[in-house]
Design brief:
Elements: H1 18-54, H2 58-75, H3 85-106, E1 109-112, E2 124-130, E3 140-145, E4 147-150, E5 153-156, E6 158-163
Parallel strand pairs: 2-6
Antiparallel strand pairs: 1-4, 3-6, 4-5
Helix pairs in contact: 2-3
Length: 164
């Protein structure tokens, strides 16, 4: 029988000097920083995309709001006489207006139209002041144009008259 000779591989041992070890550590740190940067980038991108999706309806809502305002102005022209032609015509306007408001609410667009509340510059735009008997200063007396909030974000502040 022949004896099988086993060949063993010689592992070449390298001796690292201090300079090589330092360079390896620097490269390892750079790799870790690059990984962290990629993770942070992905998080920022995901947050930005979710924010864009959440407020994707903002531009179209801003374009529709003046139409809603015009419907409100037209509806306010109606008087107590419900038999005249104007009232019959405005009844159709009221139906369209109600449908528009329902659509806005469906997409979480809510009106800011409260009176007798404290003036809040984050949701109100004060355009006039008026001295009102029995009302504290800084209270909303009249809403001149409704404001709107989309999912907690003010997309149009309410134009209001404030008590002095």
């Amino acid at each position: 029988m022949e004896e099988k000779k086993h060949k063993t591989k010689k592992v070449k041992k390298t001796v690292h000097n201090e300079e090589d070890i330092k360079k390896i550590k620097e490269l390892e740190e750079e790799v870790l920083k690059a990984k962290a940067d990629i993770i942070n980038y992905r998080k920022r991108k995901d947050e930005e995309v979710s924010r864009m999706l959440e407020f994707a309806n903002e531009d179209i809502a801003k374009d529709i709001l003046p139409i809603v305002d015009n419907f409100e102005r037209a509806i306010n022209l109606d008087d107590n006489n419900l038999d005249d032609e104007l009232s019959k015509f405005l009844a159709g306007f009221k139906m369209i207006y109600c449908h528009l408001v329902e659509t806005l609410e469906k997409y979480e667009i809510k009106a800011i139209a409260e009176t007798n509340v404290a003036f809040d510059p984050t949701i109100h735009q004060g355009v006039l002041t008026e001295k009102v008997e029995g009302m504290d200063p800084g209270m909303v007396v009249e809403v001149m144009q409704k404001g709107y909030i989309l999912k907690g974000k003010v997309i149009r502040p309410a134009m209001v008259k404030v008590s002095e």
